[in-house]
Amino acid sequence: MNASQLLPLIVALPLAGFLVNGLAGMYLPGYRERKNWIGWFATAMVFVPFLASVTLFMGLEADSRPVTYHLMTWLQAGSFTSDIAWRVDQLSVVMMLFITGIGSLIHLYSMGYMKEDEGYWKFFAYLNLFIFAMLNLVMGDNLLLLFLGWEGVGVCSYLLIGFWYKDMEKASAAKKAFVYNRVGDFAFLVAMFLVFRHVGSLQFDAIFANLDGIPADAAFWIGLLMFIGATGKSAQIPLFVWLPDAMAGPTPVSALIHAATMVTSGIYLISRMSAIYVMTPEVMLIVAVIGGITAFVAATIALTQTDIKRVLAYSTVSQLGFMFLALGSGGFIAAMFHVITHAFFKACLFLGSGSVIHAMHHVEHELDHHGKHVHFDPQDMRNMGGLKAYMPSTYKTFLIATIAIAGIPPLAGFFSKDEILAMLYNAGAFYQPVYFVLFGLALVTAFLTAFYMFRLTFGTFHGTFQLSKRYPEAAGAEKYLHESPWHMTLPLWVLAVLSLVGGFMGFPDFIVQTFGNPDAHSNWLHGWLIGGIAEYDLALAKPVKWTILLASTALASFAVWLAYQRYTGDRAAESDAALQRGLGGAYRLWSDKYRLDEIYEGYVANPILKLSDKVLAVFDLKGIDGLVNLVAGLTNFTGSILRYAQTGLVSGYAMYLVVGVLLVVGLLLF
Amino acid sequence: MDLLNLSLYLPLAGLLGIWAVRRNESLVRWVTLLTTVLAFAASLPLLFNFDISRAHELQFLTEGGRFVPDLDISYLVGLDGLSLLLYLLTTFMAPIVVISAWDSVHKHVTGFHSMLLLLQTGSLGVFAAQDAVLFYVFFELSLIPMYFLIGIWGGSGRIAATLKFFVYTLVGSLIMLVALIYTGYDAGHAVNGGVFTSDMRIWTGAEYQIGLVQQTWLFLAFALAFCIKVPLFPFHTWLPFAHTEAPTAGSVVLAAIMLKMGTYGLIRFVLPMFPNASEAFAPLMGTLAVIGIVYGALVAMVQKDVKKLVAYSSVSHLGFVVLGIFAMTTTAVQGAVIQNINHGLSTGALFLLVGMIYDRRHTRMIADFGGIASSMPVFAVMFMVATMASVGLPGLNGFVGEFLILLGSFDSAALGSIWFTVVATTGVILAAVYMLWMVQRVFFGPMTHDENKSLTDLDARETGLLIPIMIFIVWIGVYPSLFTGYSEGHIRHLLEQSKLKAERVLAATETAALPAWARDLYDATEDLAATK
Question: CB within 8 A of A96, min separation 6: which ones?
Answer without folding.
Answer: A10, A49, A53, A56, A88, A135, A138, A139
